[in-house]
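Pair request: fold both.
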Amino acid sequence: QVQLVESGGGLVQAGGSLRLSCAASGSAISTRTMGWYRQAPGKQRELVASISKSDTTNYADSVKGRFTISRDYIKNTVYLQMNTVKPEDTAIYYCAAVSRVTGQYAYWGQGTQVTVSS
């Protein structure tokens, strides 16, 4: 089992920056692909960024060049650095971990709200 706890959300002005953190327990993040999802009101949850066991990163087109996913193995924490944020980045952001059995995202945090004002 993996427990995930996000933090770092809040209100930020357009063009500003924010860093989200996801503290993991119960399993080492180095053994799993980790991801950040977001869900805006009335929209489906979408994968924003992911980082594989080999540290390969992938990003949604909408955030490429602005967001960076990374992890600290000692702290067992995954980060999402959000730069040059836009009002359309407003959403609840969720940290997720892939199951080693199914290869699908199976573990989720409670989410953290990010609101970008124009």
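--- second member of the pair ---
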Amino acid sequence: QVKLVESGGGLVQPGGSLTLSCSASGNYFRFDDMGWYRQFPGDQRELVADMTYAGSATYADSVKGRFTISRDDAKSTIYLQMNSLKPEDTAKYLCYARSSRTQFDFWGQGTQVTVSL
């Protein structure tokens, strides 16, 4: 089994920064895409950022220029550097990792990010 664990969420003021981490453990060969979704109240879910194994990144329009995704495959970890945070970034952030062999998506439990004064 594969387990993903996020960390780094919390309360931050508008304009502030946070870095989220997501580490994978368990039995796997390699992950193709890894990335982050966020879930708003009411269960609406939005893709925030995705990075392929080759290092190609995709971002939601709402976070372009403010968020940066990176991955360290040696550590089986992905990161999301979030700058210039806005109240509308408040959400639960969930990481995912797609198995290169099965194309199955593994998910973490999520970490809450709250942007408020």
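Observation on the second member. The longest strand covers residues 18-26.
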